Amino acid sequence: MADLTAAQPTLGLTVHLSFVERNQKWMAPAVFLAPALFMFLVFVVNPIIQSIAVSLTEWDGLGPKEFIGLDNYRELFDDPVFYTAIRNNIIWLVLFMLAPAAGLAIALFLNQKVLGIRLVKSLFFFPFVISSVVVGLVFAWFYDPNFGILGRVLEGIGLEAIPVLSDENWVTYGIIVAALWPQVAYTMILYLTGLNNLNPEVIEAGRIDGAKGWSMLWNVILPQLRPATFIAVVVTVIGALRSFDLVAVMTAGGPFSSSTVLAYYMFEQSIFNFRMGYGAAIATVLFVIMGVYIAFFLWRMLREEH
Amino acid sequence: MFPTPIAQASKPINVAYRIALPISLFIWLLPLLAVMLTSTRSLTDITSGNYWGWPTEFALIENFSTVFLSTPMARYIFNSVVITVPTVAGTILISAMAGFALAKYGFRGNLLLFAMFIAGNFIPFQILMIPVRQLMVDLGMFDSYMSLIVFHIAFQSGFATLFLRNFIKALPHELFEAARVEGANEFQIFLKIVVPLVRPALAALAVLIFTFIWNDYFWALVLVQSDDVRPVTIGLAALRGQWVASWHLISAGSLVAALPPVIMFFAMQKHFIQGLTLGATKG
Q: Which of B25, B217, B265 lies closest to A133 in CB terms?
């Protein structure tokens, strides 16, 4: 049937086009897109909507869900641990901004052509490749007041060893230092790539105009590194808000929830306390906060498309 | 080049730079070096508190055989491989197709779909956790390799599609027109033109996704619970609870867990960095 209607005379020859051939122009992109789109809709987009719906219920994960409106959110805004988590997330965000700066500093330090520099650059990048579980274990050991090196060093200079991970005032900073290690490696590699692609003519022109050192860096180099800075800041913000692994591995949010962050508190409430609705409400708050950054990033990326 | 090449500076500065380089590297990698050294220590050193001095005797082989023989470490490694490899292959397959569709076909909603894939990349995992876990239970996949493989493919396809779409978009349009004139259909164009040309991007993506999935901790925590399917990140965290202060064993275990991505990184360094720095140079 398809053959009859599709028979078209071209250059005097009769070409029989199958259904697929006639329709491939619009079918092709649909077929190519279908698997990824299906997976993404089922496992990413739909769960977001469902999570928000769950946040309006009381649910232990097994029994029936009970609709309770905004009660979870009301409880959340009276929950001191929620504010601890928010405060810690802000500390993470602020201190994580050291990563682009430190990454740039190391990249500038390493951007030379001397023997073996390529190996040195790769080794500097190493922390990023290692699992955060390993990073967490290593730093937990460093901080241990009995057998850690930090305690030895502090005692060596006449101070008392600080039990970093069991001290409410230090614990979050201790975890952030551990998290900065791979993050700095990441931003460093972004800046090394950026430095590699600098326009030599612009630098020359800057030199002729008398720019050097700091003024050169500030007025000539940094503007050219803007794409690298943009990506570095984006991945750093996302990394800070996503912080989960190190908190889980190093302290499980303790002592007394003092090092918890939204991502971990949500997990704790849902998995350990079986409060899925409450957990979903925390996740929704985190999602809204991150949504602001995602929207900004999207706007920047899509603007380039036009 | 910025900063000014060190070769143009004075001799003392050159010497100072070459001395500073290994010292800074040593300090930067101190955590790793400490782990390596500790993985060779004997129990005697650990019990006598010699954590930071030179080991009194080397017990490298004993420690690593303890890790492999008296714990399920080998099984965890095997599980990580079983989870990671199909994820990488599956993600690359569906993302190359989707990337091609978004790069080379103009249709309504193209940019919207592209934006969706980008945004999906950055969302917090926690907003997906409860429904995805429930869905895996409903599908009978909870606590199986499949739950992690399927979810990772779905999530990673966001980043991979974004990556490949930009790469394919940069391919010259004439190439596709010429192939169409020659009578190639769209599927032949994908297989015979797109795939061979984006091979370097596929390699970059493969190493990157391999590392992400190998190091995943959160989803393994949420979607699997038995030792038969747990990947090495969870296994290591669990072993730490058993070993308490046996830091020589924890160190040896950590090295085992960290090694595959490190090897991958060194073997495919150029591709790896190319993948990671996408967008850092232009735009």
A: B217
In a domain, A295, yes or no: yes
- Chain A contact set for B245 (CB, 8 A): 147
Average pLDDT over residues B121-140: 95
Number of domains in chain A: 2
φ/ψ region of B196 (left if φ > 0, alpha if ψ in -120 to 50, else beta) reads: alpha
Q: Looking at the structure, tell me whether residues B180 and B83 fall in a common domain.
A: yes
Nearest residue in A to B117, CA atom = A40
**Alpha-carbon distance A168 to nearest alpha carbon in chain B (angstroms):** 22
* Final residue of a structural domain among B46, B68, B90: B68
CATH of the domain at A274: 1.10.3720.10
Q: Which chain A positions have a beta carbon within 8 Å of B120's beta carbon?
A: 40, 44-45
Q: Mean pLDDT over all residues of chain B?
A: 89
A292 touches chain B (CB under 8 A): no
Q: Which residue of B has its CA nearest to A240?
A: B124
Same domain, A50 and A159: no
Tell me the backbone φ, ψ of residue A121, rounded to 5 degrees. -60, -45
pLDDT in tens, A155-183: 888 888 888 899 999 999 999 999 999 99
CB contact under 8 A, A138 and B98: no
Q: Report ipTM for this prediction.
A: 0.90
Do residues B149 and B56 both lie within one domain?
Answer: no
- The reply to whether residue B153 touches residue A142, judged by beta carbons under 8 angstroms, is no
Are B43 and B62 contacting, i.e. CB atoms less than 8 angstroms apart?
no
| Residue entry with tokens 């980043």 | B159
Provide the 3-class DSSP secondary structure of residue A57.
strand
Reported as a pLDDT band with limits 50, 70 and 90, residue A281 is very high
Whether residue A85 lies within 8 A of chain B, CB to CB, comes out as no
User: Are A298 and B126 within 8 A, CB to CB?
Assistant: no
Examine residue A61 and state whether it is found in any structural domain, yes or no.
no
Q: Which domain holds residue B175?
A: 70-276
- Tell me the pLDDT tens digit for each residue of A34-62: 999 999 999 999 999 999 999 999 999 88
B281 vs A contacts (CB less than 8 Å): 193-194, 196-197, 227-228
Is the domain of B162 the same as that of B249?
yes
- Identify whether residues B109 and B216 lie together within a single domain: yes
Cβ-defined contact of A294 to B218 (cutoff 8 Å): no
**pLDDT confidence bin for A8, thresholds 50/70/90:** very low
Q: Of A114, A249, A123, A187, which is closest to residue B30 (Cα–Cα)? A: A123
Question: Are A45 and A124 contained in the same domain?
Answer: no
- Within 10 A of A30 (CB to CB), how many other CB atoms are there? 13
Residue A9, classed as helix, strand or coil, is: strand
In SS3 terms, B100-123 reads as HHHHHCCCCCHHHHHHHHHHHHHC
Are B229 and B169 contained in the same domain? yes
Specify the residue for token string 């290690």.
Answer: A181
Range of the domain at A16: 2-54
Q: How confident is the model over B26-54, as a mean pLDDT?
A: 83
Contacts of B233 in chain A (CB under 8 A): 131, 133
